[in-house]
Amino acid sequence: MTRALTLVALLTAAIAPAQDLATYNKALSAYNGGSFEDSAKLFYDVYNTTTDNDLKLKAEYYLASSFQRQNLPFTAFVFYSPILKAGPAHPFHGKAVEALVTLQEQLNDDYLIPSQLNNLYDKYAEAWATLPLEVLSRINYLIGRIAHRRGKLDEAKQFLEAVPDTSQVYAKALYLQGICLADPRYPASSEDDKRKNQEQAAEIFEKVLKIDPRAKMIDLAEIQQLANLGLGRVQYGLGNFDRAVKSYDRIPRFSKYWDQALFENGFARFQNDDYGGGLGSLQALYAPQFAGAFQPESWILTSTIYYFACLYEESKSALVQYENIYLPMGEALKPLIEGEAKDTNFYFKLVDGAEAEKLPRAVLNWVRSNERMLGLFQMLRQIDAEKGAIEQIQSWRAAKLSNELISYLDQNRATLEQVAGQTAKNRLTEAFRSIKGFGDQAEIIRFEIAKAEKEFAESGADQTTLLKKQTLYRPQMPAENWNYWKFQGEFWRDEIGYYQYTLKKGCPVGKN
Question: How many whole angstroms separate alpha carbon 61 and alpha carbon 135?
């Protein structure tokens, strides 16, 4: 009797793998035929029931691949991740790495996939060296970004230099090399070495700008705009203010970086003794198109330029504008930053939309426009879209596959909400401190104005007479096909960004 029972058990064990194999082959047939809803369900069944480890590993990979081909990239990421962590012992490890690199770009994921690749790099670097060159290049770029974000600038540069010029992420990697070198924290043993780092950064940004616009590189047009911005900053730091102006001027009007370029160009022109050009750049920021922009320092710079021209009433007027616009924002932010401690969920809701009315519009726009925040919101939207799609697939609901998938997506959504909440808190804190810091600068400027006015009065000079003796001339036209129009309080779209002030100087003789 015992012998018979043992025989039945052996027969059952033999039949089970045969059934699993039949289901696997059916799943593979559906997969090859493009029926990914069916293949996912069947591979899921095999993965959860088979005792054949080889079959289980195959089903695991094709299950993740079915989700990817079903246009459920985040769900696919969830199922590729265990294969990534399993390492080369998994027969589909290399394929999973390739898939995850593709999904990272598709999801615009700046956190989850890059972090996993970074954490496993040292462990699997030897195995990954055999991956296709483009896949390895993107891994090096992603790890370089993480190292840069963590302030490991020399390490970041080494990973970024490993990206060849044939890669689609070459322009991005090259640009980030320049950012590393331009960072004052980049290792340098002397002031001369620091300057050499800045000069090398400028050369790298120039190299980015020389890449053929037709090259098949990801986000090339945007990267070249950023390279102009980076080049402007480096040239400004080197004291080459005229070169900085030219770099800022090359950033296209109304691009996503244009307002920042206008502001920084105001600084560069001011330092280049072009007070009228500096005020002209800043004037564009006060157009209705930028009504929701967060640029508190622009009014401080405006006041500073007027102060150096000894036009004290105009300087004080700019400070009043700053206080009227930004001090109420600071008051609105103060209880959110300095009040009772709040969790990350509170800050996520503040910027997600549910309670966005509690934030000043300009601050909310500034927080939401952050590249990392945009990426997080994109992934959260993707998770919600995939949950909706999964709930509509009846066969998955019947197999209870839907419940498991939605549970995984909810867990990841909660994690991303925490990251987004912390990012929002950091940005809001930065905005509050900026307003407070520039408010302190405004008080210093006001004190200096009062001091200068007192000295002016004591000198016996008459500023009104001094100003009347000066003649204002029309600004020089860049070319013959340009026209001059006097600004009369109206902002015309085709004029924004081309403003040029003509200033008299109210300084006593010898102070100009």
Answer: 18
- pLDDT for position 15: 54
Query: What local confidence, expressed as pLDDT, does residue 460 receive?
Result: 81
Specify burial of residue 308 (Cβ count, 10 A radius: 0-12, 13-18, 19+): middle
CA distance 278 to 266: 4
Three-state SS at 460: coil
Q: Picking from 123-137, 260-274, 353-367, which range would have the lowest pLDDT averaged per residue?
A: 353-367
pLDDT at residue number 192: 95
Are residues 139 and 173 in contact, defined by beta-carbon separation less than 8 angstroms? no
CA distance 167 to 42: 37
Q: Which amino acid is at 339?
A: G
Neighbours of 235 (CB within 10 A): 23
CA 282, 284, 287, 293 torsion: positive or negative?
negative
- The values of phi and psi at residue 310, to 5°, are 60, 30
Cβ partners under 8 Å of residue 2, min gap 6? none
Q: Residue 441: helix, strand or coil by DSSP?
A: helix
pLDDT at 509 over 80: no
CA angle at 364 for the pair 146 and 288, rounded to the nearest 5°: 120
Reduced to 3 states, what is the DSSP secondary structure of residue 377? helix
Q: Using CA atoms, how far apart are residues 371 and 221, in angstroms rounded to an integer? A: 16
First-residue to last-residue Cα distance in the chain: 113
The residues near 85 (Cβ < 8 Å, ≥ 6 apart) are 116, 120
The C-alpha angle with vertex 428 and arms to 424 and 434, in degrees rounded to 5, equals 145
For CA atoms 75, 76, 79, 84, the dihedral sign is: negative
d(CA 421, CA 405): 24
- Whether the Cβ atoms of residue 319 and residue 446 lie closer than 8 Å to each other: yes
Local structure of residue 483 (DSSP, 8 states): -
Short-list 303, 307, 342, 346, CA closest to 438: 303
Residue 451, both tokens: 């001091």
Sign of CA dihedral 58, 63, 69, 72: negative
Buried b vs exposed e over 126-144: b needs ≥16 C-beta within 10 Å? eebeebeebbbbbbbbbbb
Q: Give this prediction's pTM.
A: 0.90
pLDDT of residue 1: 42
Q: Are 396 and 390 within 8 A, CB to CB?
A: yes
| Contact predicate 295/259, CB 8 Å | yes
The answer to whether 117 and 139 have CB atoms below 8 angstroms apart is: yes
C-alpha 431/C-alpha 437 separation (Å) is 10
